[in-house]
Amino acid sequence: MHQSNSMEESNQIMLLGTAASPYVNRVQFVLNLKSIKYEFIEENLARKSDLLLASNPVLKKVPVLLQANKPPLCESLIIIDYLEDIYPNVHKLLPSDPLDRAIIRFWANYMDNEVLPLYEKLRCTPHKEGKEAIIKQIIEESSLIEKTHIKFSNGKSYFGGEDVGYLDVVFGSFIGWTRFVENHYNFKIFDRIRTPNLVEWAERMTSHEDIKDVIPREETLMNFYMMIQEHKKPRVV
């Protein structure tokens, strides 16, 4: 019954975003995992639409979730928490215990605030020595995330255990960019010797039915990367 209601309401849902944005991708993951139908509206972040600027006038960025007769929702983690709250019985992402939920949210915030900015910092750093120092940081962080996977997965496939959970959604949204950075800068972030669990986890994520078609391909990321380089913006998503 709950899932049926979500399907009816979901016909009124639109998501403003761009296919190359990990913050948009993670919302797409959750919409798919919870069987929520939605219309995806692709934004050109070099020429933002009037709809985006009206829907998110403060930050002027994606993702934005639009629903009929409701205010727009912005910021990926806020949107995900909202979807988890309104569809709690369809592919539950978070545990019931408040402390466990808080700990998981800590790691999600850590990923967004401490790990992912290193990718952007690597792009913006002009000198070889500076890039090498950032690459070292990224490798160190990947080893920490490997330990985090071991802790939360309890020997199972995902951070969430048997199936995709909150941290899988957050961390998994960067798989495409992780591979892009590896290829573009010629080093390994996920390594079969140093981070074997993350390598296997990434393979499972990229074959998951609700996720595999959302993870952006190399061409999509390269086009987005070139757009960023052209406009020299430190953060556009």
TrEMBL record:
Domain of life: Eukaryota
Enzyme class per UniProt: transferase
A Pfam family annotated for this UniProt entry: GST_N_3
EC assignment: 2.5.1.18
GO biological process: glutathione metabolic process; toxin catabolic process
Catalyzed reaction equations: RX + glutathione = an S-substituted glutathione + a halide anion + H(+)
Main location group: cytoplasm
GO cellular component terms, semicolon-separated: cytoplasm; cytosol
Coiled-coil ranges (or none): none
Protein's name according to its UniProt entry: Glutathione S-transferase
